Amino acid sequence: MDELLSCYLEYLQVEKGYSSNTLAAYRSDLQDFIVSINLTSSIDIKEVTRDKLATYIYNLHKKQNSPATIARRIASLRGFFRFLCLENILELDPTINMETPKLAQKLPRVLSIDEVDILLREPQDNSPFSVRDKAMLELLYATGMRVSELVNLDLMQVDLEIGFVRCIGKGDKERIIPLGSLAIRWVKAYLDFARLKLSKVKTTNAIFLNNHGKRLTRQGFWKIIKKHGLAKGINKDITPHTLRHSFATHLLANGADLRSVQELLGHADVATTQIYTHLTKTRLKQVYESTHPRA
């Protein structure tokens, strides 16, 4: 089983181009399955039947795992057994027609435009850390990047003269995102002043650095945005993804088309982007009332 799992993860990495975070999630889900199956008996993969899978899923429910967790585990199993069939290790896929728990559609948390303005107010001082934080927050809201994409940016990926950032997203897919004037201004201020103060390792290409002069981590930026949210008195749970959600919602509310927002966010499927349309019904009602002759 361990060998099969390693082969599958290598397939996902090489053939599908999945990120290290996605691979880690698949590994965790499938290792949990392997351990759970082996708790009852030592069995060959060919002996895994629909009944054994059903028992595993039942036990997940019994342990009060959330529907989202169970749905993710089922998706991991489906991918794994599909791979085994493609490699002719199995003749039949025991996950075919396996039901997935229905998930309640959770609308993403977003900030209002006024709350974003409060969060992105001028830094209280001109210290390297304040200028760095301001540049990161402006850049995140200006582009809608994922936090992993933000902290992994290298110097060569940002062109402030033309006003674009070259972003490497999930599956190493590249997209070009335009920058607004405020983001350009603050990133330039950071690169011209603050980064020079923070840089201690002259060879690093990372744009955003921590107090040790090394690349800032996702966890590090998570603490930064939490700190600024509390300091500005915003009474919401703010995460890096909150600004990504706000970016998409504000674009759609102000008339951007869905396909353009999909491309900016780097979504493979427009259905993923459509969740933001639920947050723009007020805007749709206003357009209807102002344009329909009998509204």
Describe the 3D structure.
The protein is mainly α. The chain has helices at residues 2-14, 20-40, 50-62, 67-86, 113-119, 128-143, 147-151, 181-198, 218-231, 240-253, 258-265, 270-273, 281-291; strands at residues 158-159, 164-168, 174-178. The protein has two domains: 2-86, DNA polymerase, domain 1 (Orthogonal Bundle); 113-287, hpI Integrase, Chain A (Orthogonal Bundle), CATH 1.10.443. It has 13 helices and three strands; from the N terminus they run αααααααβββαααααα. A three-stranded antiparallel beta sheet has the order 1-2-3, with no helix packed on it. The radius of gyration is 23 Å and the shape is globular.
**What would CATH call the class of the largest domain?**
Mainly Alpha
**Helical percent range?**
55-70%
Order of helices and strands: HHHHHHHEEEHHHHHH
Into how many domains do the coordinates divide?
2
Find the structural class using helix and strand composition: mainly alpha
Q: Low-confidence parts, pLDDT < 50 over ≥5 residues?
A: none
Q: Report the CATH architecture of the largest domain.
A: Orthogonal Bundle
Rg, rounded, reads 23 Å
Major β-sheet profile: 3 strands, antiparallel
Number of beta strands = 3
In round numbers, the mean pLDDT is 86
**What characteristic shape results from the CA principal axes?**
globular
CATH topology of the largest domain: hpI Integrase, Chain A
* Helical segment count: 13
Q: Kindly, what is the distance between the CA atoms of the first and last residues, rounded to a whole number of angstroms?
A: 63 Å
Looking across the biggest beta sheet, what order are the strands in?
A: 1-2-3
> Quick one: CATH superfamily of the largest domain?
Intergrase catalytic core
